[in-house]
Structure formats: structure tokens, C-alpha cells
Write a structure and sequence with these properties.
Length: 239
């Protein structure tokens, strides 16, 4: 049996009386891009927070390469190589691009590895190299999103969690960022991506799950789901 990078079984999370996740199952094979799709409030961000150890689970199990990481403290999960690039491009606006990247690398001990990550990041995002001395807050929305992903890559992720990288960005920029995400994956990083933009995401993903009010109501190969025009329109918005 293939060992999963992430194996989520019957995951339940509640906020008081609100059952945000009602027992969901998600598998992320190593080397793949798996998408978690769904409308606003479906529970996508909550899933990532549970994996990252930011919210407590009420039931179920989360395994990372076969070790149980359920309810492990967030800093330990980061140290194990599960790195989240947050929604809303939460970069540090008053620090430069370069300083933001250095913060991303804070868990990496080896100088050589930091240098390698730096070079890799600037290869993916040459615009960030051009703007390395610029305050992150003065970057465009697309550049800030690039920086959020770049900062996560500085931590040498084994599994990269991407929270809505297309949020608020123009279609052309989204396409550009998604191409880079695909490239990052091709070079070996396993990715779990959470998105409302189903069509663009299915183009780069291997497999996808559709979340609706705390439950997975559909899953399949991205190449098959993308054929289902009614699904794209009815459930997910065809943009
Ligand atoms: P979005 O696209 O807005 O991030 P989402 O699919 O990621 O949506 P979640 O943010 O995971 O959805 O929210 C799932 C449910 O849990 C929603 O009903 C939401 O209102 C609720 N919720 C999320 N965070 C909290 C919180 N801190 N306290 C109470 N309820 C919350």
C-alpha cells in the first residue's frame, strides 16, 4: 500500500455548537497536488488549521507519513515539514521581501539549505528578486501572494498547504501563480491546496475533494471532475 503524505480519517472539528467538519476523509499521496474545493464557509480553512495544529480536533485522526500528528502543537508540525501559506497573503508589510523570506527560513538550521531555498524561490519568482529590498506592503496583490508562497518554501516543506492563493487576484495573475505552483510540485513538493476557484485548480491538481458544509460530497480525479460542466457551474462557480 502507498504510504500517504497526509492521511486524514473521520476528522471532526467544532467551534462551540458549530460542527465545522463532520468527519471528513482526505488522502494526499506523496508528490501529488490534492485540491480541497468548496464555497465560502464550507470548512476548507478549518481543515488546514486542524492539520497545522492551530485548532483542536474533536474526533478522527491525521497522519503524516504514517505518524499520528493529531492535536500535535503547531510548532512541532512545522518542524515536521508541514508548512502553510496563509489565506489573505499574510506577509509582514513593514519588512522587505528579503526579510520576509528570512523569517520563512527560521526553522532551517543549515546555511547551505537556506541558500538553496533562496535560489529556488527566486527562480520561481524572479519579480521578488527584482523587489528584494522593497517593503512587502508596497507590493501588488499578486506579488504579495507570490511572497506568501515563497516564504513557505523557505522552510523546506515536505507538504505545502496553500490556502486560497487565487483570492482577490486577476485571472491572468491567478494563471501565472498556478503555473508556478505546478512547477513547485513537479520538483517534488507535495501540495494540498484549498480553493474556491475550482476550474483553475482542477487544471493543476491530480485529485480533488468537494467540501460542502463540513462534509465531502464529491471526490475524484481532477481530470474527470473538470469534464463535469454541471458540477463546475452548479457547485463551484465556473470562473
Ligand atoms: P472561507 O473561504 O471563508 O475561508 P472555509 O470553507 O475555509 O471558508 P471555514 O473558515 O473553515 O470555511 O469555516 C467553516 C465554518 O466554521 C463556518 O460556518 C464558519 O462560520 C465557522 N467558523 C470558522 N472559524 C470559526 C471560529 N473561530 N469561531 C466560530 N466559528 C467559526
Amino acid at each position: 500500500m502507498v504510504q500517504m503524505a497526509l492521511d486524514i480519517e473521520n476528522l471532526e472539528v467544532s467551534y462551540g455548537n458549530i460542527r465545522a467538519l463532520k468527519g471528513i476523509n482526505i488522502k494526499v499521496p506523496p508528490g501529488s497536488i490534492v485540491a480541497l474545493l468548496g464555497a465560502n464557509g464550507a470548512g476548507k480553512t478549518t481543515t488546514l488549521k486542524a492539520i497545522s495544529g492551530i485548532v483542536a480536533t474533536r474526533g478522527g485522526r491525521i497522519k503524516l507519513f504514517n505518524s499520528d500528528i493529531t492535536n500535535t502543537p503547531a510548532e512541532k508540525i512545522t518542524a515536521l515539514g508541514v508548512i502553510q501559506s496563509p489565506e489573505g497573503r499574510q506577509v509582514f508589510p513593514d519588512l522587505t521581501v528579503e526579510e520576509n523570506l528570512r523569517i520563512g527560513a527560521f526553522t532551517v538550521k543549515s546555511k547551505a539549505e537556506i541558500k538553496r531555498n533562496h535560489e529556488r524561490v527566486y527562480k520561481y519568482f524572479p519579480r521578488l528578486k527584482e523587489r528584494e529590498k522593497q517593503m512587502a506592503g508596497t507590493l501588488s496583490g499578486g506579488e504579495q501572494q507570490m511572497l506568501a508562497i515563497a516564504r513557505a518554501l523557505m522552510a523546506s516543506p515536505k507538504v505545502l498547504l496553500l490556502d486560497e492563493p487565487s483570492l482577490g487576484l486577476a485571472p491572468l495573475i491567478v494563471q501565472n501563480i498556478f503555473e508556478i505552483v505546478k512547477e513547485i510540485n513537479k520538483e517534488g513538493t507535495t501540495i494540498l491546496i484549498v480553493e474556491q476557484n475550482a476550474l483553475q485548480t482542477l487544471k493543476i491538481a491530480d485529485y480533488a475533494y468537494v467540501l460542502e458544509v463540513g462534509e465531502i460530497n464529491m471526490e475524484g480525479k481532477a481530470s474527470e471532475l473538470i469534464q463535469d460542466k454541471r458540477l463546475i457551474e452548479a457547485y463551484l462557480g465556473g470562473h
